[in-house]
Amino acid sequence: xxxxxxxxxxxxxxxxxxxxxxxxxxxxxxLWRGCVYGAxxxxxxxxxxxxxxxxxxxxxxxxxxxxxxxxxxAALQNFTGTVKx
Length: 85
What we know:
Blueprint (H helix, E strand, L loop, with lengths): L3 H20 L3 H33 L3 H18 L5
């Protein structure tokens, strides 16, 4: 026969394991969260790079970028009509 103290300890462990199983998320949920987190990380990095490039262009640190922006504006103007500066 099993010792009563051991039996109560095993019941506590079983109850805790079933509780942990209910609270745990599935593999697909974890994969989905990882993909969303990764996409947010990449999009955030792109936004930071674009904003930093725009600020450096406005300040005049990157003169080559201003030349490319002027060419892009000219191309848009030819395509759509007018572009605000």
